[in-house]
Amino acid sequence: METHPLIIGTVIENHGAIFDVLVENRVVHCHLRGKLKKDRLKQATPIAAGDRVEVRLLSQDRGVVERVLARRSGLSRKAAGPQPLEQTLVANVDQAAIVFAAAEPRPNFFFLDQFLAMAIAGGLDQLICINKCDLVELAALAPVCGVYQRIGFRLVFTSARRGDGVEELREALRNRRSVLCGPSGVGKSSLLNAIAPDLRLRIGDVGEITHKGRHTTSAITYLQLPFGGWVADTPGLRQLGLWEPTAEAIQAAFPEIRPYLGRCWFSNCSHEQEEGCALRQAVEKGDVHARRLRSFRQMGGR
Known about the structure:
Elements: E1 6-14, E2 19-23, E3 26-32, H1 34-38, E4 52-57, E5 62-68, E6 74-78, E7 86-91, E8 95-101, H2 109-121, E9 125-131, H3 138-150, E10 154-157, H4 166-173, E11 177-181, H5 188-195, E12 221-224, E13 230-233, H6 247-252, H7 278-285, H8 290-298
Parallel strand pairs: 3-5, 8-9, 8-11, 9-10, 11-13
Antiparallel strand pairs: 1-2, 1-4, 2-3, 4-5, 6-7, 12-13
């Protein structure tokens, strides 16, 4: 009986029941071994783009995923549905480039804070990219974006249409394994086309009435960049539930708040109306932005 060889590859796209795996510079279309299908009862995504997998080759372009190798990092959220399941968007990346639009769609900075916490929980470096800067004056962005710069987050301001900041973003992605994530319609695919035109990714637009983005990327695709490195292009997300967020991950997303934790008069302070709240006093002094404190509370930070 013929024994088919085992070989290690990287998952580059999920088509539902079929996974594209890059094996020795060729794409092998794989289905899952039965035991891995059962893992769907525990995880919404037992295999994600970026996973290193052990494949049994059936032919030059067909195979079976036998085993998923241990992940060293990942970007995960709580899957939609009644059961608490983890949905891993992408695995084994080292950087999250979180893309928001300066306008169209209007930026939701609470959503940005959630993305930061999700990236930190997954062990990823964080880069905030504010795109569509051709639609507003940069001075109008300073009051809010300056908050993130002052507390140590790296920001890059781009316009895929005009070319602003494209070279800076290219250098930030060079020779790294990154994921581009953010809401729908913020221009993630347009940015990738700007930094690597040969990718020729499909792009969409924004609804004139809702000011919300329309999905154009329907699956997470792990792409090799021509100037070095890999990037996962993800569908835009409209809701984000953190997967089992720890107090440490939430606090790490709010470095300006951490020095005041444990300094309130009441040990169970909710940081809302209590007397002697160190965080509310920090807001009054201008050391903590009121909106960031609201985000911290909404995420369950204490």
